[in-house]
Amino acid sequence: MKRVAIIGAGASGLVAAYFAAKNGNGVTVFEKNEKCGKKIYITGKGRCNLTHVCDEQEFLQNVVTNAKFLTSAIYSFPPESTMKFFEDGGLKLKTERGSRVFPVSDKASDVTKCLENYCKSAGVTFKFSERVLNLDVLQGTMRGITTQNGSYLFDAVIVCTGGMSYPSTGSTGDGYSFAISAGHSIIPLKQGLCGLEVKGEYCAEMQGLSLKNVRLDVFFREKPLKSFFGEMLFTHYGVSGPMILSASSIINRIDLDGVRLSIDLKPALTREQLDKRVLRDFNEFSNKSISNVLKELLPSAIISEVLKRSGISPEKQVNSITREERSRLLTTIKKFDIIVSALRGFDEAVITCGGVDVKQINPSTMESKLVKGLYFCGEVLDLDAFTGGFNLQIAFSTGYLAGNSV
Ligand SMILES: Cc1cc2nc3c(=O)[nH]c(=O)nc-3n(C[C@H](O)[C@H](O)[C@H](O)COP(=O)(O)OP(=O)(O)OC[C@H]3O[C@@H](n4cnc5c(N)ncnc54)[C@H](O)[C@@H]3O)c2cc1C
User: Fold this and answer.
1) Residues 346-390: pLDDT tens digits?
2) pTM, whole model, 2 decimals?
3) Hey, which of 52, 350, 398 would you mutate to test ligand 1's pocket, going by the most ligand atoms within 8 Å of its Cβ?
4) Which of 154, 176, 380, 392 to mutate to test the pocket of ligand 1 (most atoms within 8 A of CB)?
């Protein structure tokens, strides 16, 4: 039996603790908060999108950083195993639009309760309100940890401290200092799955407008990077919503000056089909102003900006719109460009990109290649994925490997 310390009672820590204890080890979880899973509590708007129904291949396609490193973890504990694990633990699950999995109760706290019950049934000891301060490493081997209350001896330590987004939940980046003290390199940290600030005043004017079924193309120095289809939202600072959050994880490590987002407001129509549709509306309402007629085609809140960009006066009657003006209008609708100025801060970012360099971690065990008996799992590692339940699944799969490997 080994003495195992888990630092952090979040998603990865609770799974690691359970599997380490189930294998007969003496496991103690140190959590600086007064209870488990403060971050789980706010996931999926309080409902917790805990995984994504898909096979391993599709899963890895949704991982933005270090998908190859994750292969072993995801094949060892795929979404299917996660669902079975929770259902066996008494948590009923449902799959919603976009293959996203939630508890039937719609309560994220039930996910934490289920994990905590698993841990207790396996004999895990919890030490709440006890912050770990240091790792104690001797000659390349884990010896123990020091907390605010004193020092403890352990044969293995699993660092599950999360990233540094939403720091009020307890994820304040402590794991990065632990890693550095053990000789590990940290890939620079960046906000991921966050809103984007935008140049110009128009977003604030359209604040609250949600666009559905639109296409977003992301360019860097005019080279296409990735396309998304779905929803986005205009806010007081710029843009947000599912597609934008995903785009942020693509552009957060490159020079934002070279980034251009282009929205196709009518992706279901080719330019020719859109032209026909516009002409039909123009013929039907020939004496009305363009801003009124466009209400047939676009949400009201975006019309003034579309006309401004097309160089057409909002009062102009449609029967006097020239062919060139119509052409500019079509271009604006198909390519509504957004120039990004900044990422929103860590306090609003859903995840932290960057972290412990996975080159120094064994992908089959999550053990450090530098210090024997030291493991890392979850968001503290340089791993991140799109929205849809992928990030919690990464925490569960890496926690499973670490817990089973000690
Ligand atoms: C608003 C929001 C919504 C999200 N929604 C989803 C979603 O629906 N689906 C999804 O897949 N992902 C979602 N995520 C991402 C997901 O929550 C994280 O990726 C996941 O929780 C990471 O798990 P973790 O175990 O690595 O870290 P965390 O869950 O952050 O846990 C880390 C724990 O370590 C503790 N800790 C830190 N330092 C110390 C220390 N020194 N001593 C003791 N304890 C310490 C912290 O208090 C914390 O409890 C969301 C994130 C946010 C912010």
Assistant:
1) 999 999 999 999 999 999 999 999 999 999 999 999 999 999 999
2) 0.96
3) 350
4) 392
Helices (H), 130-171: none
Atom of ligand 1 nearest to the CA of 47: 8
The domains found in the chain, sorted by start residue, are: 3-191+351-405 (3.50.50.60), 195-344 (1.10.8.50)
Please give the Cα distance from 272 to 237 (Å, whole number): 34
State the virtual CA torsion across 195, 197, 200, 206 in degrees, nearest 10: 20
Cα distances (Å, whole numbers) of residue 201 to 57, 179, 275, 312:
42, 42, 29, 19
Q: How far is the CA of 272 from the centre of ligand 1 (A)?
A: 48
Work out the pLDDT band at 343, boundaries 50, 70, 90.
very high
Nearest ligand 1 atom to the CA of 165 is 53
CB atoms under 10 Å from CB of 45, counted, come to 9
Residue 251 Cα, ligand 1 centroid: separation in angstroms? Answer: 22
- The sign one gets for the Cα dihedral 236, 264, 200, 222 is positive
What average pLDDT does range 161-188 have in this prediction?
97
In the chain, the amino acid numbered 158 is I
Tell whether ligand 1 has an atom less than 6 A from the beta carbon of residue 111.
no
Rounded to 5°, angle at Cα 165 from 371 and 16: 45
% of residues, the chain, pLDDT over 90: 99
CB of 11 closer than 6 A to ligand 1? yes
* Residue-level pLDDT at 182: 98
Q: If you measure from the C-alpha of residue 5 to the centroid of ligand 1, how many angstroms do you get, rounded to a whole number?
A: 18
Ligand 1 contact via 235 beta carbon (within 6 Å): no
Tokens of 271: 């330019």
7 lines ligand 1 (CB under 6 A): yes
Looking at residue 363, its amino acid is P
